[in-house]
## 1
Amino acid sequence: MSYILKQQLVPGGLTNNPNMPLKSISYVTIHNADTYNLTANAQASANYLTNNSQGSQASWHYTADDIHVMQSFDDSQECWHAGDGAGPGNTTSIAIEISTNWGFVAQGQTQAGVKNWEQATDAEKAVAQTQFQKACDNAAQLTADLLKKHSLGIEKVVQHNYWKSSKYPTGKDCPYAIRKQLFGTSWEWFLGLVKKYYDGGTIDMGFQVGDIVQIVGADAVYTNGVPVPASVKNRPFTVKQVNVDKLLLAEINSWVYSKDCQLVSTPVTPPSTDCVPKADYDQVVAERDAQQQRADIAEGKLAHIKAIVE
Ligand SMILES: [Zn+2]
């Protein structure tokens, strides 16, 4: 563990937030802080939460920057970060915010009092890139630690975008910087880091091409956000492709999240048809026939002798 974990737990929870335990610890949800001041690091996030989120209904468990991971709530506490009210995002997942304290906003974003992306110098962007990649790296290590601690598979790491609500029917555009692949990051890159820390990069994603799976997730959506219809669920489909956290299924020809799938069966490797060379096979058959012939002759002779004796 190369990040420095510091606890600054919010005593007694927040007045505007639920002070109740999670229904279950089933997911880890990744966010980007989208606060771009140079001073908006993990410590500042923790201070914001200790300060009762300045009265807003927002809370999360951990914030990672390039040096620290600050923990503000116990893993088992419900926080409000997914925007889905009493839905599974808020009630069954641990939230990690990744700091974006670059001193200028992300491409396509605006924030009062902070420089735009276009105003940042190349030197500032180089510093921000190193800083952001390290913050993501720290968050990935923390994610791997949490997966192991709570016996979860890597398919349980989701973007904030995964959780839908009436306000964001296709999910919020978060973690924004990772989704926009800024500074050489991407969601696949991030999950790759998580896998690396989970067990040295050899984690079995659980599914492989040829497996028969069925879609069982109650809120299952295709990766384009369209809900999977009930008529498609609980039916066997063959896995055509596997890509980190999603599967391409035959017949459907759409990508679905592997966390929504359940294994039905793994194909049994058929016996090889050329395990016995043809020449050997022919020889075995010839010997068998010859033995049978000798047996027939012997039986014939025996019958003949019997007939004479009797
Ligand atoms: Zn978010």
Note: Residues 212-265 form one domain.
## 2
Amino acid sequence: MLKKALIVSNIFLFCCWIRPLFGAHCGVSRERAPETARYLALFFASGWEAIAKYPQGDLKEKIQEELVRLSGKSLEELPPESQKVLQEALKAVEIALFLHQRGDEKDLPRLLGRQIEVILAFRCGIRVKQPSLRFRDPYNRPDPWEKRFLEKFEVEVVKDRRISAKGSLEDSQYRYLYPLWVHKSCLRCHGGPQGSRDITGHLREGYRERDLRGAVSVVLPVY
Ligand code: HEC
């Protein structure tokens, strides 16, 4: 079933994106990389907030509202380089919602994440994922760099001195890790009782408010 959904979604993606493929122009300069990575992470955080708070709402609109709340800026107000990247992410949301409404994939959180990740990789060469020390999907298994900082974030939680994010400029890429904390609204799926099934059919982890759920990890190629 999942395989079929993936094939359908990939063919759809291919048809949607092959024509304007060479016109994406979402390259990011070294100077703009830190803010673009941050806006992208906030976009993901907005996605979770919207899913958690408005199960019945218009997700595309709610994500943009949450983005304004978290970043203080609307998409149109972002610097042009960041805006182009986030526009691609927003198109991926549209495709995910289309596929979900058609019934191709029931698990909307998973579909949304994968769709944004695929589109950003395909169109902009940007790698995004959501690693966690207790990942639901093996795709979100942290690499050694992510694991090191996730463990640091967790220690900070215990001490209650929360570091906000970790950024690092390497030769031709900018890496960024933005922690995602558990809020009350996430508990519906990630809270207790541990081991019971949430609405998407996954097992709840038994997190509590203010725990570290995971992070958004961004690898941006820079010029
Ligand atoms: C409607 C249920 C639902 C709600 C509400 C929800 N999540 Fe999730 N979450 C999921 C599902 C399903 C996955 C697995 C997605 C996948 O396979 O990529 C997931 C995965 C994640 C991951 C990736 C790590 C992993 O386990 O694979 C993070 C990070 C995350 N959620 C954060 C949050 C945060 C933060 C909130 C609250 C603001 C939240 N979620 C609310 C269903 C939910």
Note: The first strand starts at residue 127 and ends at 129.
## 3
Amino acid sequence: MESYKHFYSERKHKDTMIPYQLQTLCRSEREPESLQYFLNTLNSENTRDDEKAAYIHVPFCDSICTFCYFPKTLKKGGEVENYLRALKLEIEMYAKTRYISTSKFGALYFGGGTPTSLSSEQLTDLLLCCKESFNFSENAEITVEGSTFNSDEKKLKKILEKGANRLSFGVQTFNDSTRKLLNLQDDASHVIHVIKTACELGCDNVDIDLMCNLPGQTIKDWKKDLQTAIDLEVKSVCIYELTVHPNTKLAKQLQTGEIPPIGSVDFEIDMYLEAVDTLTEADYKQQHITYFTLPKSDHKYVRISIKDDCVGMGSGSAGNIEKYTYSNNRSLDKYIEIINNGKFPIGSGLILSKKTEMEKFMVRGMSLLSINKGEFSRRFGKVPEDVFTDTIAKLKRKGLITVDKQEIKLTRMGRVWGFNVCAEFLPKEYKEILKKISLMQTKKEEETIAQKHIGK
Ligand code: SF4
């Protein structure tokens, strides 16, 4: 194995990086000044032709996976109905604004939580509400994320009939004993059955998430998971390395030794490279640090939301419109209360400065494996090397990126350390916030876990 290791003391993961990307800076309370900017933007006409994306957050799950740290809640009848009523009101509030009514949407994404934990009727009702509220382009991509556990043929058929054309299943692994250990509710044969059913129903864009470096998982197990995905001919595969978040059930189980340990960082890197090589050999093209697609498949939502506006709706969702980046209130009760008072449920927001926009461009662009220097210059009137001189020189020297006249690209080694490379373009104060977040009151717990299981 080539030496790709030890470029950084720790590997930053998508799930710790992305949600906080530039959003964390604005996790303070609603600032009247920035909120006014947001409202003014919504009241103005959108004069750009670029397609926009929309994200709808469904925070409910039928059960809680042991590793999960996402904003989610166990499903309870009345709460779901109240939430969906508020969510539809929020969608309609956006739809009435001048900015949204003069925008074209190329992608809509229902994420969670588990959107498929909703009933067929609830899901189709939401889909229809979105279709009536936003102007979608002809080839718009509409994704419903979910679990195979609560996706039966009837539900899939209904949501596909009402316009969903991409299904994304959080499979994680096809190994039954590991599935049990993670509290995933169905077994591999059911997972495979649901994926096949989705394809037979005519969905030609089925995506799955797979996780590596799971407790007790060997390279052989990982290869088997990758091969099963390839055999199923899913159009795209997203690879996540397990991140052990403090205060999750998994963290406690690892700490007490109740479950087998996870592998070291070196082992995790071997698994990542195994995925890159196996999927590439099977004709998948790497589009993102974690994301691989078969030829002619696309994931418009990622392409658009990384570079352009993404209107985030639902509790805890994040969005950005023009220069404004925001996060909605995370508390379900507060979210519902604010909407019922006729206001946008922004929990925190920030107007991006030109400098921050350039950083965002670099961070997000690098996660898509390369930066087009011409595009950067057209937007900001400078080439990236003029702005990020030292960072680019350092990354080039380390062999993590290559730079030519047109592009800045992640090397193979750079992809291994992709999220660390992205983080290099963040401002210093932001890096400190990230550090603080990862050290929150749970520092001790994290350290113990790291010493016990990660450093092996
Ligand atoms: S289904 Fe997704 S959001 Fe829900 S607990 Fe599992 S990982 Fe978390």
Note: The pocket of iron/sulfur cluster is lined by residues 61, 64-65, 68, 70, 72, 112-114, 147, 170 (CB under 6 Å).
